[in-house]
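Input chain follows. Return structure tokens only.
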Amino acid sequence: MKNRCSIHTGLLALAALSLAASVHAAPPTRINHLIDKQDLSERDRNNIRRYAEFWSDRLGEAEGPAEVDEARAKLVDPLRAVRVGDIFRLEYSKSVLPLLGKTAEQATPHAAVNALQIVALLGTPGSLEIILSHASVKDEKRFSVRLWAAKSFPVAVKQNVLHANDIDRALRDLSDAASLEPSWLVLRRQFEAIASVDSALSRNLQVKVLKAAMESMKGQEGPSDIMEATYTALMLIRNEYLALPPADKETVGKALAPVLCDLCTVAAAHWDSAQEDDAARKSYGGAVLVSENLLKLIDARVRPQQPGPRTELGPAWRNREKGRFDSDHAKWRSLLERPPYNKRR
């Protein structure tokens, strides 16, 4: 009898614990009605904190894609409004960022990527810190997380919360990361992130990253898939250059021209191996063509009264005419070694 009572008591205790756990685990109510409130009560702040912590914990502890997707959707839900109030954003960020930062650092790559996507939508300086901490291969070895760190930066900027100094510092950090990046796909996204900001600093850093890419490829036997990212970067730079005021075109052009010539140096060095690879032949050829066209546009601006070199590097690459390519490349090298491009001579 005593044993039977003990079993009955134990079952009741387990049922009580189970009930308590289910009550504790019950999802909190939505907080969308607080998004545009100008003054948050203590109760409002507690509701925001409970909601943020509950779904952030769920994201960090998710055991599969479905759980990750559910937690992400819940965390993004309050941020989908056309106008998210500054007071709400600050309070929500205060609760959610420490937990999302931990998830980005320690969880599975899938959960970490989703954490970065949510962080980007907050767009605060704290968000930027988390994004940048996963931008460089020095600190983040997971390819997918570095990729999404780069893709998250423009999203964070678009929230119009960050100050110019925050953005400039982030651009410098991104350029440092891009200068070390071994993956062409991540590098392309990093370059796109830098180019998403329209500023003189951004343009200077784009040239810096291109120069680092050239140095990286010079040290390889080739063909290098970094040229894939370079080709995309050059098309972005070309479009930016065309939209610049005349004075800026001359300044940017003088800095950019030697890098464009260096790209042709890489193409010449990798000629045989790149010509034999279909994908490389296309990316190298496209990059050479854009570089040559940009060189001609730049030289017409920098030396408006003098005729520029008559070259056809793009067609020479396409037609596999190595001698013609080398001869035309030498014309640009010779020009860029003299003033006004090189003031030391």
